[in-house]
Amino acid sequence: MACNYNLASVLGVVLVFTLFHDPITVTGQNIPAVALFTFGDSNFDAGNRKFLTGTRFPQNFWPYGKSRDDPNGRFSDGKIVPDFIAKFMGIPHDIPPAFKPGVNVSRGASFAVDSASILGTARDSLNLNNQVRRFNQMISNWKEDYITKSLFMISIGTEDYYNFTKNNPTADGSAQQAFVISVISRLRNNIEMLYSSGASKFAIYTLPALGCLPIVRQEFNTGNDCYEKFNDLAKQHNARLGPMLNDLARARSGFQFTVFDFYNVILRRTQRNMNFRYSFTNVSCCGIGSHNAFGCGRPNVHSKLCEYQRSYLYFDGRHNSEKAQEQFAHLLFGANPNVIQPMNIRELITYPVNTNMSEFWKEPVGRNLLLVHEYDVNASASM
Ligand SMILES: *[C@@H]1O[C@H](CO)[C@@H](O)[C@H](O)[C@H]1NC(C)=O
Ligand SMILES: *[C@@H]1O[C@H](CO)[C@@H](O)[C@H](O)[C@H]1NC(C)=O
Ligand SMILES: *[C@@H]1O[C@H](CO)[C@@H](O)[C@H](O)[C@H]1NC(C)=O
Ligand SMILES: *[C@@H]1O[C@H](CO)[C@@H](O)[C@H](O)[C@H]1NC(C)=O
Ligand SMILES: *[C@@H]1O[C@H](CO)[C@@H](O)[C@H](O)[C@H]1NC(C)=O
Question: Dihedral of CA 238/40/196/107: which sign?
């Protein structure tokens, strides 16, 4: 077993260097000194949940943070995407959790909370609207023109569709559509609230391939297949996200955004794992069950922990390994429009403020998104 996976990793490395450019993002060059604000769920939670509820949550305990020897409230074996983005932006430290008392938020803060949803509110968590309100309570920390230049990243929605699927297992097409429309419309309201407070640069994630999460494969017993019904809901949400943001950009002066196609980023890695140097994409590194997907970090659960986190796409049943998070951050910052459009984050934060965008989000037609290049052919040279 160990032997197989070593060979597999070596092959993966060879493949990726021959087939793909893997540019190293250079920190700080020509990047304005602005702040990074993040909103959403556990993908972006920098430790807020502990400060909100004072309760002990697994993500504050080993083996979370294992690769850094530091459980820090993040759902990963180490750092998460916003930590890397902050670094690429030249911010000299990680973005602090906004709910931690006394933090220095001069270069931004994380408002994201584990289990946060757009509609409803999960127990011991906050919804997106509560997070936006918190931002508004703290707004005297930043000048308005600084807010306008700063980057707002949002990753949320998984919890809403989980909840919907559990409560409405037999929902038909029109019930699904009505739910998706209500989620997208509430998301729009919250983005508009941030815009009213001065924000103008938004980077928004699509939902990932929810049906391919190890915890979903495990709960719904799909074996080595993804749960397509769940993927389909994510696709419906994603199809309405770009058009909603296009509308906003056309209606609101100086509104700028980009959409990160997280769905296909995950699916490419799931289906062509070796090209991206993952030996395991259908099971997680830490947890128990058929897909090792449950209970990582929980007391009283004797969860298994893999030997080498970097060969896994998922660290626990639902969250990506640090290696994957770092790959995503490079994509967000420097990838081409197959991955993030109409521009990447490097372009978004250098785009002149108070200017309308000249390009909009377009539905990708006729491209096989599982086979595309993620970086421009000359990207390494131009960085
Ligand atoms: C907050 O951090 C910034 C650097 O990010 C620093 O310039 C500033 O002095 C700090 N403020 C306080 C009150 O420590
Ligand atoms: C889950 O759905 C129920 C019933 O529709 C709702 O009351 C609750 O607020 C929802 N929770 C979340 C986190 O969306
Ligand atoms: C995960 O994928 C591997 C390789 O395709 C397969 O052998 C294994 O059975 C899968 N594991 C599960 C739990 O589906
Ligand atoms: C920018 O967009 C807004 C909203 O559509 C519009 O009112 C404004 O005239 C546009 N500004 C320019 C310079 O085109
Ligand atoms: C890539 O670089 C080559 C050589 O410098 C140049 O001829 C070509 O136009 C570049 N392609 C793009 C898409 O920028």
Answer: negative
Q: Per residue in 288-326, pLDDT tens?
A: 999 999 999 888 888 889 999 999 999 999 999 999 999
**pLDDT digit string (tens) for 346-375?**
999 999 999 999 999 999 888 899 999 999
Q: Is 42 among the catalytic positions? A: yes
For ligand 4, atom 2: residue with the closest CA: 253
Q: What is the pTM of this model?
A: 0.91
Helix (H, G, I), strand (E, B) or coil at 305: strand
Ligand 5 neighbours, Cβ below 6 Å, are: 376-378
**Residue linked to tokens 């509820």:** 53
Q: Among the options 41, 42, 76, 284, which is catalytic?
A: 42
CATH number of 33-272+324-371: 3.40.50
Whether 316 is a known active-site residue: answer yes
Give the number of the atom of ligand 2 that is nearest the alpha carbon of residue 121. 13
Q: Is the peptide bond before 97 cis (omega within 30 degrees of 0)?
A: no
Domain ranges of the chain: 33-272+324-371
Nearest partner of 151 among 249, 39, 242, 26, judged by Cα: 39
Quick one: which of 103, 87, 112 has its CA closest to 345? 87
Q: Name the active-site residue from 94, 115, 160, 319.
A: 319
